[in-house]
């Protein structure tokens, strides 16, 4: 199975896999897709540089990409100010009260609070880009739409392609106008930051809007070969996948990831919720006691990005360390209902490809 995307990215199969795990990203690339490493968990440039050194060694010369979280503009409410000073005391009290009620213990004294939260800040995201430019990265993707134009131009000077996620056709047009090379049409079903329009409607709308100027990938609700085939039928040149890699055997960031995988393996497609409590922007998360608490009448309204990140970052650390599958905070899409077992990345990729070919063969018989 080859599309124009394969030639554009230098990959064997039109499957892009986003993941926060370098082990999973490298395995996706080795399996013939494009592994894209999420950079938001890295607090500083040196840490990311070390991980990309590892990626350079363990991708067997195959291409890979990185994903940053970078608003096109620095949020005006935090520009030039100490973000912590803008977080209301009532929000902090609610978080502390909720964690106590859920039985989440505090962090050990030797563990720094807010590990990974700095990656959500605009300035740190820019440092991530600077690091990526010094590695053989093929693609820089931005989870929040078009990166600033100067970042796009800088990436192009280094020969990198730039991708941006879009939840509306107007977003896609803006991305292409700004110089983005690949548009990811991310439907409502997707995990993490996502818009209001379902993939079945969104993908052809974006293909019709910009497909003659930029390749379009389909994202949201893709975890089987039938869904990959559907994405191609809707006009996309490939699939952008994310959630399905969370239950692969290579996924290992911390010991607490076992609890996360247990929660994901036991979830159905209806066990997600779209909320602003994770970052301040709408994102789809696994439904847990933590998300339920934020839906209660006494819960405050989530703060804008990046203030919400700063508010809940330590809470996320504490919940992950606690290892309780019922109390975690994890972005995941509605495809979670089909994530029922832990399998190696290569097996997941092989299954996607086999099912896609079987789907094409079945449809061919209908002609």
Can you offer a commentary on this structure?
It is a single chain. This protein is α/β, with parallel strands linked by helices and 367 residues long. It has a domain at 4-74 and 118-269 and 339-364: TIM Barrel (Alpha-Beta Barrel), CATH 3.20.20.70. Helices cover 39% and strands 13% of the residues. The chain has helices at residues 4-9, 22-30, 45-58, 89-101, 122-132, 149-157, 169-178, 199-210, 225-233, 257-265, 289-294, 307-322, 345-364, and strands at 15-19, 34-38, 64-68, 139-142, 161-166, 182-186, 192-193, 216-219, 238-241, 272-275, 283-286. The strands form 2 sheets. The chain has an 8-stranded parallel β-barrel, surrounded by 6 helices. Helix 6 links the parallel strand 4 and strand 5. The mean pLDDT is 92.
Our count of helices gives 13
> What is the number of strand segments?
11
**Rg from Cα:** 20 Å
User: In CATH terms, what is the fold-level topology of the domain at 4-74 and 118-269 and 339-364?
Assistant: TIM Barrel
The unreliable regions are none
Sketch the major β-sheet: 8 strands, parallel, barrel
Return the CATH architecture of the domain at 4-74 and 118-269 and 339-364.
Alpha-Beta Barrel
The SSE order reads HEHEHEHHEHEHEEHEHEHEEHHH
- Widest sheet: strand ordering: 1-2-3-4-5-6-8-9
Average pLDDT for all residues: 92
Into which percent range does the helicity of residues fall?
25-40%
Question: How much of the residues is beta strand, in percent?
Answer: 5-15%
Query: Between the first and last Cα atoms, what is the distance in angstroms?
Result: 20 Å
In the CATH scheme, the class of the domain at 4-74 and 118-269 and 339-364 would be Alpha Beta
Shape: globular
Structural class by secondary-structure content: alpha/beta
The H-level CATH homologous superfamily of the domain at 4-74 and 118-269 and 339-364, spelled out, is: Aldolase class I
């Amino acid at each position: 199975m080859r599309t124009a995307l394969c030639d554009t990215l230098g990959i064997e199969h039109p499957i892009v896999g986003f993941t926060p795990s370098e082990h999973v990203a490298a395995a996706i690339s080795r399996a013939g897709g494009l592994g894209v490493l999420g950079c938001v968990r890295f607090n500083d440039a040196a840490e990311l540089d070390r991980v990309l050194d590892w990626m350079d060694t363990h991708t067997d010369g195959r291409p890979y990409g990185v994903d940053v979280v970078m608003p096109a503009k620095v949020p005006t409410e935090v520009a030039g100010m100490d973000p912590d000073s803008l977080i209301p005391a009532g929000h902090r009290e609610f978080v502390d009260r909720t964690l106590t009620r859920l039985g989440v213990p505090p962090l050990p004294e030797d563990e720094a609070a807010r590990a990974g939260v700095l990656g959500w800040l605009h300035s740190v995201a820019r440092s991530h880009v600077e690091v990526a430019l010094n590695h053989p990265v093929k693609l820089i993707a931005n989870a929040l739409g078009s990166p600033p134009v100067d970042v796009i131009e800088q990436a192009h000077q280094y020969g990198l392609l730039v991708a941006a996620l879009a939840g509306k056709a107007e977003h896609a047009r803006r991305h292409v106008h700004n110089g983005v090379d690949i548009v990811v049409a991310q439907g409502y079903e997707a995990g993490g930051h996502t818009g209001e329009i379902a993939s079945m409607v969104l993908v052809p709308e974006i293909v019709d809007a910009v497909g003659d100027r930029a390749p379009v990938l389909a994202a949201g609700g893709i975890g089987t070969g039938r869904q990959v085939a559907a994405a191609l039928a809707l006009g996309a040149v490939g699939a952008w996948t994310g959630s399905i890699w969370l239950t692969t055997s290579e996924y290992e960031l911390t010991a607490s990831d076992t609890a996360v995988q247990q929660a994901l393996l036991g979830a159905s497609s209806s066990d997600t919720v779209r909320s602003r409590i994770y970052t301040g922007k709408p994102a789809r998360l696994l439904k847990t006691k933590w998300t339920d608490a934020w839906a209660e009448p006494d819960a405050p309204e989530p703060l804008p990005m990046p203030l919400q990140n700063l508010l809940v970052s330590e809470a996320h650390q504490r919940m992950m360390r606690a290892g309780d599958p019922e109390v975690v905070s994890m972005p995941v899409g509605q495809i979670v209902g089909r994530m029922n077992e832990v399998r190696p990345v290569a097996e997941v990729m092989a299954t996607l490809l086999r099912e896609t070919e079987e789907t094409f063969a079945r449809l061919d018989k209908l002609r």
